[in-house]
């Protein structure tokens, strides 16, 4: 994770936790648990000997992509990896299990807390200053935010993987 991405996440988390305490805190945790866990586990695998020992055929940028894909897939409870990564080792079995646990419970617990907060809210009358949730503007804001968060999270590491590998050809 680059420093600018980390600073953006830290600022986002600070603003949300301070300004919109309960609802925003759970939303920030839900938004950040995926990128932080996948990128942190990938970083640990890239800088440790057991993590690098799993790369059987590919090293360099392609090896980084293989490791990132293994943790992303494990976080999504799929558990696949590329053929060039020998993930059947004590290191990868343990760290991908951590990724699976974070993918399952790290997302489920904040989602349940959010649903409990939403269930407690009362219906409020619509005023001119509120954004309707059944409008194209609301959908655009949600989709745009998702694209920006994913792009800022994964594009730097993708630049280190497939893009550099393609430029080295």
Summarize the structure in words.
- The chain has 169 residues and is an all-alpha fold.
- The protein has one domain (3-167).
- It has six helices and no strands.
- It has helices at 3-19, 21-47, 49-53, 61-75, 90-120, 136-167.
- Helix 1 runs antiparallel to helix 2 and helix 4 (61-75) crosses helix 5 (90-120).
- The chain is elongated, with a radius of gyration of 19 Å.
- Tally of separate helices: 6
On the 0 to 100 scale, the average pLDDT is 81
The topology string of helices and strands comes to: HHHHHH
What is the share of helical residues? over 70%
Keyword list:
0% strand, mainly alpha, single chain, 169 residues, elongated
Task: Walk me through the topology.
Elements: H1 3-19, H2 21-47, H3 49-53, H4 61-75, H5 90-120, H6 136-167
In short:
By secondary structure, the chain is mainly alpha-helical. The chain is 75% helix and 0% strand. It has one domain.
